[in-house]
Write a structure and sequence with these properties.
With about 140 residues, the protein is α+β, with helices and mostly antiparallel strands. It has helices at about 1-15, 70-80, 80-100, 105-120, and strands spanning about 25-30, 35-40, 45-50, 55-65, 125-135. Strands 1, 2, 3, 4 and 5 form a 5-stranded antiparallel sheet that branches. Helix 3 packs antiparallel against helix 4. The radius of gyration is 18 Å and the shape is elongated.
């Protein structure tokens, strides 16, 4: 009986931890203005943290892009490969210069780095939201 409860609990945890498919998400703006919030979810990104001449860990992050209308959200979804390349490149640079597997990630600096890179690829990006971030040792 105890084994069945453990398996059921693991199933619930696995379902809760599974990533959602990438794409658009729409939420209502709670401001009463009637404008919808348009979000474009990116797949999780993992880049190596290089310390001296060896890989010391991994920087993991997930982004959601906020835009002002549905047409822009569709445009960004179509441009996702270029946006992802820019996010990976700037994530690699951040991991090389500013990240460590032994300390907390400076999310404010990571946000500046990623926002600049993604706005260069597509000026239509309103805000870059970091919804998940972490660094781990190898």
């Amino acid at each position: 009986m105890r084994g069945n409860k453990t398996l059921a609990m693991l199933g619930v945890i696995a379902a809760a931890a599974s990533p959602l498919p990438a794409g658009q998400a729409f939420a209502s703006g709670g401001g009463g203005g009637g404008e919808a919030l348009h979000l474009v979810k990116m797949e999780p990104i993992a880049v190596p943290i290089v310390d001296s001449d060896r890989v010391a860990g991994t920087l993991n992050f997930q982004l959601v892009l906020e835009v002002h209308d549905a047409a822009t959200a569709e445009k960004l979804t179509a441009a996702m490969p270029n946006l992802r390349m820019a996010a990976i490149a700037s994530g690699l640079e951040f991991a090389r210069l500013d990240a460590s597997a032994l300390r907390a990630v400076n999310v404010a600096d990571l946000d500046k780095t990623l926002t600049g890179a993604l706005k260069t690829v597509s000026p239509d990006v309103g805000r870059v939201l970091i919804v998940e971030v972490g660094a781990s040792q190898n």
